[in-house]
Amino acid sequence: MKSIHPFSKLTAMTALSISLLLSSTLLGGVARAQVAAEVEGPVSAITDHGDGTASMTVMDILVKLDSNTVINSPTAALSIRELADSANLPGRTQPGFVGGTAIVIGNSQDGVIHAINVTIEPAENVVIGEITANNDAAGCVGGMNPADRALFINGVPITFLNDARMPFGEATNEGGFPINPCSLTPGDAAAVEGYFTTQGLYVFGLTSDDADTAGHTNQTAITQVQCRERAGRLEVRGATTASSGTVTMTDESTGATIGSTGVTQDLSGGVYRLRVNVSACPQIVRATHEDGSFGIAEAQIR
Predict the structure, then answer these.
(1) Which has the higher per-residue pLDDT, 257 or 293?
(2) Least crowded by CB within 10 Å, which of 80, 180, 195, 225?
(3) Hey, how many other C-beta atoms are within 10 angstroms of the C-beta on 17?
(4) Rounded to whole angstroms, how far apart are CA atoms 189 and 182?
């Protein structure tokens, strides 16, 4: 049997789609259809038009946003005003998020992408290594001045971000439970994520299994929330100090129940996972164990 190369099929399908689209455009002046679009790349401009809309340039592609566009940094939901804020993020010389990277999901028409979701950050810099110094275990979070910072990973000074557009979240262990980062000592393993400048690493997240835990005996954490808006599919993963029981997920904004799932025992307590169809992606999810402990996390919407 003669095989057909997959790209041959793709080319034929694409040609047919283009032919149909052109035909519908030429016959009777029918409006050109929108096409699903996604782009990930550098941001060269962001403009707030002052009327609830904005535009940005990503990889030289014009992207339009309106009041319905969902905008997020790694640790915060953003308004159009915050997205376009030209005030420098700590340690950076470029205005706001300009020069950073954006992931845009939306629809394209006449070469312009109309954004449904935008995720943006100045850069994605990660270090997985060892703590090489903690010069002030009582107050290692420090300030914006590099001289105030006491915690170092592989010789690089760490600053915990305090900008509302991308604040430091919560230091956790691999199970997602809160830890005290100031308890870290040289030689401890840690992972940090943020953006690097000439002044060091400005981080929004820190993970380590070598730090002291913080909080109550019973804990529930969310380690991942992903929602595919087009498919209407939500997945929530997390961990609990309890080795059994039930975890119920709710929409933090509305209080509506999303679904429940059981806890499976593992070495450090328990883990859980929920997959469910949703009519709309929640922005923030709360996971509550039957022992009353809970965790809250923002959804990554794609």
Answers:
(1) 257
(2) 180
(3) 12
(4) 13
User: What CA–CA distance (Å, rounded) separates 109 from 92?
Assistant: 34
pLDDT, mean over the chain: 84
pLDDT, tens only, 250-269: 998 889 999 999 999 987 78
- 48: pLDDT strictly greater than 90: yes
Percentage of residues of the chain with pLDDT beyond 70: 83
DSSP E strands, 198-241: 200-207, 212-213, 220-228, 233-240
How far is C-alpha 291 from the chain's CA centre? 29
Q: What is the side-by-side order of every strand in the sheet holding 284-289?
A: 257-262, 246-251, 284-289, 294-298
Order of strands across the sheet with 264-266? 264-266, 269-277, 233-240, 220-228, 300-301
Q: Which residue has the tokens 């509305």?
A: 254
Rg (CA), the chain: 23
Cα–Cα dist 238/51, whole Å? 40
Query: Is residue 136 a contact partner of residue 130, using CB atoms and an 8 Å limit?
Result: no
Tokens of 35: 């096409």
According to DSSP, the residues that pair with 118 across neighbouring strands are 71, 104
